[in-house]
Amino acid sequence: MQLLFLHWGLHGWGVFALAAMAMAYFAYRHNLPLALRSALYPLIGKRINGPIGYTVDALGIVATVFGIGADMGFGVLHLNAGLSHLFNIPHSNLVQIILVVSMMGAAVAVAVSGVEKGVR
Predict the structure, then answer these.
(1) pTM here?
(2) Residue 87: in which H helix or E strand, if any?
(3) Which of 8, 24, 25, 120 has the fewest CB atoms within 10 Å, i.e. is most exposed?
(4) Helix or strand (DSSP H, E) at 46
(5) Domain ranges of the chain
(6) Nearest residue to 35 (alpha-carbon basis) of 70, 59, 12
(7) Is the dihedral of CA 107, 27, 20, 69 positive or negative?
């Protein structure tokens, strides 16, 4: 838990806030796309619309996917530990796989149900 508090505490969110402010500034003031590459506008100028900018956006997507995967992994480990403590459910790979599949199923169900319906 200390590792999670370290990465998800105020200083962890501060890094996200700095990146968001950089993207928002250049999107609002310079009419650039609200993308990760826009934060690099002072460094590389108009080249953000070329291969360098697209590479930065692709790396941002890859980092997001790996970050969500790591968070889901930590969440499943903690959920399995909590279920084991409360209900004596075994601490095993099978339980963790069931938890991952159920979380993914819930996410797919919400995505398929449509934005209009939302999560109720």
Answers:
(1) 0.73
(2) helix 51-87
(3) 120
(4) none
(5) 1-49, 67-120
(6) 59
(7) positive
